[in-house]
Amino acid sequence: MNDKYFIDKTKEILKSYHLTPDKNPPHLPKEEALKVLETIRELINYHDYRYYVLNQPVISDAEYDALYHFLKSIENVYPELITPDSPTQRVSSDISSHFEEVKHLAPMLSLDNTYNEEDLKDFDRRVKELSKEEYIEYCVEPKYDGAGISLLYENDLFVRGATRGDGEVGEDVTKNLKTIKTIPLKASFSKYDIKLVEIRGEVIIQKEDFKKINEERMQEGLSVYANPRNLAAGSIRLQDPKEVAKRPLQALVYQITYVEGNSSKTHYENIKMLHKLGFKTPFEYMKLCKSMDEVIEYCKYFESIRDTLPYEIDGMVIKVNGLSLYDKLGFTSHAPRWASAFKFKAKQATTIIQDVLFSVGRTGNITPVAKLEPVSLGGVTISSVSLFNEDFIREKDIHIKDTAVIERAGEVIPYVVSVVKEARPHDAKSIVFPTHCPSCGSKLVRTPGEAAWRCINISCPAQVVLRIKHYASKDAMDIKGLGDAVAQLLYDAKLVNNIADLYDLKIFDLVRLPRFAKKSAQNLIDAINTSKTKGLSRVLYGLGMRYVGLTTAKKLSLAFKDIWKISKASEEELMNIEDIGDVVARSIREFFDLEQNIEIIKRLEKAGVVLKEQEHIGKLQGIQFVFTGALSCCSREKAKEIVESFGANVSESISKHTSYLVVGQDPGSTKLRKANSIGIKTITEEEFLKMIE
Ligand code: IVH
């Protein structure tokens, strides 16, 4: 029987019996139970193998749970049908040959799962029946989704740490666990007359840390980890403790499984003690409940806030609080009868990739986005998911029409964990990455060593707003009043589709817009005009070429002195400049090789933007002149133009911002009087001409 058989059969059974983990499976008559029982066991064995041995699950955790739950429910009704080799009768193993084997003092058992209120009430009923108690107090705490561990403390020292292994025998990973800072190497158990204690807990990785690790791996072009649990489990079994120490692992402890010399009477007291001794525990989230209704309410509440926790939890654990009842209740072959896990709705699902579209980000990055057959994931419907970049698609071997396993961990965005290759239909299509921008059609580029394909067309509609904002920014053309919101407004009003359009703006275009009055419109037009003379290095920076920051722009400007010379320079010529390497040179060449970019630069030149290095630029930066009386050298307009080309500006009236009042022939008295009264320096036309030589 091949993979396809098992996958199809699984789907068929899930569908025909309407199995989901949060609903009770249907009751089957014995003959029918007999017929399907073997198939279900066979399927579970197959999925166990895929999950534990191959590390390649082909169904989601939720589907697996539903199947397992179905088997359990049949066996509960017909216990005589249980066979010793049924998957429900074994504790799975993860032993590898690299570590010493150690026997746990108390076997590391699993927990029985519950999925709904009814299951919890059944659990309550069973506990009361077996213990013959009418009233039971429960302790409810989060169920951490990590890698199980057991810790042994002798005479206050941490002496041994182990993985779960087959439940009886685990692997000695003491050296690795010692690197985890939340595991105290010494804890004062002797204060409580405890000589020897075995504690159970979980190694976890916080969601933020996990996200960061994956982001870094993605940037380095490495494959991403599926979830924090797998990464935690892999980490504690690494061969080199130094490598383990580099991982952001944390350990939480939640159960004392063996103790010599303690007198605690409740689980709550035990956890409080561990909390006081410096362990990370569920203490702050633990709730003592007097009834199953209270338990249910708390479980539901916690499910609603699960995403606010810094780490993953996949449910709640309900434990009988009184320790004296533990012995009375005992264990089944694989789980204690005094505890039960309430599982939250799964955050993994499988669905079909219907198509892949490509979107252009505001910075020109091309992102493939998979359109999915809508699927519910932890209460949210997911219909599309980012595939990040071309490497991600190739590594995961994603095809259109593939069945994909989707996961949404915490507030982390949903993503494709894997595709089920065995379920790939014959007409599945491989994903062809575009060579040209889906927004503007220009040729895409990809820098060696980078994951993303990018569109570098300066007038690409998808990037216009960000490009304009950058062009207008303080270090570039310093156009005051042209931030994100105004750039968006101008673009939405179809007034500006690229940076060259800025220089065609007229006052009457602006006053029609909601944000502009006459004065603010005039201010913006003035600021745009002033930007023309900011100089070559600022223009180069403002064009937003990848890797060309302010310093590189200045070096280019000084070396070539003219934008058209830069535009024709070869990569070798560019690399002759200090600090310009092959990646930067290539990026500059790619920018000028694109015809659309040259067109924009031509329009900037036509609009009067200075594209040559001018030594005097910036000499009078920040200075404000006011003129009074007639100038003999030239008209006021001409003087204004010259002044602005030096980086200074001209105002009509005297204010505290005025630097000089230039006094020509037959000056009026108003400006002179005002300048004198507030102490503004007055200069003659000759002095003024000297300043601008
Ligand atoms: S108590 C003997 N409490 O969930 C009973 N287990 O799916 C010991 N787990 O095998 C288990 N959080 O590895 C317990 N607060 C918690 C837990 C917890 C996570 C793990 C544990 C267990 C698995 C069962």
How are the SSEs ordered, and which strands pair?
Elements lengths: L2 H14 L13 H24 L7 H17 L23 E3 L9 E2 L2 H15 L6 E7 L2 E8 L2 E7 L5 E3 L2 H5 L17 E10 L1 H13 L8 H9 L4 H6 L2 E12 L6 H10 L10 E3 L2 H14 L7 E8 L3 H6 L9 E5 L4 E13 L5 E12 L2 E7 L3 H7 L2 E2 L2 E5 L7 E5 L9 E2 L13 E2 L8 E2 L8 H9 L11 H9 L14 H5 L6 H14 L4 H7 L7 H11 L2 H6 L2 H5 L6 H12 L1 H12 L17 E5 L7 H10 L3 E3 L8 E4 L5 H10 L2 E4 H8 L1
Parallel strand pairs: 2-11, 21-22, 21-23, 23-24
Antiparallel strand pairs: 1-6, 3-9, 3-10, 4-5, 4-7, 7-8, 10-11, 12-13, 12-16, 13-14, 15-18, 16-17, 19-20
Helix pairs in contact: 2-3, 13-14, 17-18
The structure holds 2-(butylsulfanyl)adenosine.
Comma- or semicolon-separated keywords:
alpha+beta; 693 residues; five-stranded mixed beta sheet; D-amino Acid Aminotransferase, Chain A, domain 1; elongated; 19% strand; 5 domains; binds 2-(butylsulfanyl)adenosine
What does this structure look like?
With 693 residues, the chain is an alpha+beta fold. It folds into five domains: 3-90, Helix hairpin bin (Helix Hairpins, Orthogonal Bundle); 113-343, D-amino Acid Aminotransferase, Chain A, domain 1 (2-Layer Sandwich), CATH 3.30.470.30; 348-430, Nucleic acid-binding proteins (OB fold (Dihydrolipoamide Acetyltransferase, E2P), Beta Barrel), CATH 2.40.50.140; 464-606, 5' to 3' exonuclease, C-terminal subdomain (DNA polymerase, domain 1, Orthogonal Bundle); 624-692, Rossmann fold (3-Layer(aba) Sandwich). The strands form seven sheets. A five-stranded mixed beta sheet has the order 2-11-10-3-9, covered by helices on one side. A five-stranded antiparallel beta sheet has the order 14-13-12-16-17. A four-stranded antiparallel beta sheet has the order 5-4-7-8. It is elongated and about 115 Å long.
